[in-house]
Amino acid sequence: MPLTLKYATAAQLGDAFRERYRAASKVECGRLAKWILDHIDAGDFTDTQVRNAFGLTVGQYTTIKAKWTNLRTAYNAMLAAQGE
Length: 84
Prior knowledge:
It contains four helices and no strands. By secondary structure, it is mostly helical.
């Protein structure tokens, strides 16, 4: 199901996400990275929309997206982990 914004504009959502991400640590960083990348992959947001919402240059966005990709991979591995 596509993302719909009932209570916020895309700009407000971008601002809120950015502040939440700045304050996040450990598992929360992975969860947020997964959320944003999953929505980009689903077509809810474009890379340009996310880059603009964060106020980043193309180079800065490339760097943070690579970090998010690594975080999502690690987060997904953690979710799939099982004990003995």
